[in-house]
Amino acid sequence: MYLNHGRFTAALKAINVVPHANKMKIFYFSNEMHRIRVIAMAKSINIANFYVANKSIVYATFMVFIATDYKMAAEAIFVTIALFHPVAIVILYMLPFGVQFAAEALVSIDRIKVHSTLIIVASRLY
Length: 126
Fold this sequence. Notes:
126 residues; rod-shaped
């Protein structure tokens, strides 16, 4: 029986790569799970800070206002709260979502790179 030597060698190379591929998959997915845990922890810390930071910023502003001997009026209080609320929403609430989407994009790009590399290697083997 005649065997094409090039294809036979390529098949042997592919068989030798398979056991190592499982180890690479386990390492890659454990590394990816670590990234996901870190992102989830940062997101939950930022959501917790969203509720605390808004009130603490307004409180600190009023303490500085009182320390500088200004008279506090209801108008100044409501304007201050109205101005800090949109800023706090953008910075403290929306920023973590932007970081999350950027991290997910990086993970997707890494997966595409790995997949395209595997396609190139497989095409060279056969």
